[in-house]
Each structure stands twice: as structure tokens, then as C-alpha cells.
């Protein structure tokens, strides 16, 4: 169940600004040559988006269309 733990750290954290990058590197190695983990990740869908200051400031809004994250101006 390492994927659950690693994916839960793929967020921006002001107290630990590099946690997302570390989680992404862990994902790279946990998915490498592992068809079972790759299949599990392939089944994931976006459920909701979280707005960010940079995108909001630029006038963009994130939405989910057909299970994929999209930007709207």
C-alpha cells in the first residue's frame, strides 16, 4: 500500500516545499517495471481540483472534463 502513502504527499505544502517533488521521484521508482502498480495508477481519475494562487491570479479556473483536468480562462 505504498502508493496510497506516496500519492497523499503529492500536494503543495508550505511547511515542506519539496515534499511533492520527493513523492514524484518515489512514484517513478515504485512504478518502474511494476505492471501491477502501473495498472492501479492508470485506473485513477481526478475527483476534484484545488485552486491555486498563481492560476487564479492569471485568470484561470481548473475543472474536470471527461475525467481529465482542464483549464478555463
From TrEMBL:
GO terms for cellular component: cytosol. Keywords: Cell cycle, Cell division. GO terms for biological process: cell division. It holds the Pfam family Atx10homo_assoc. InterPro entries: Ataxin-10/CTR86_families, Ataxin-10_domain. May play a role in the regulation of cytokinesis. Residues 1-72 form the Ataxin-10 domain. This is Ataxin-10 homolog. Belongs to the ataxin-10 family.
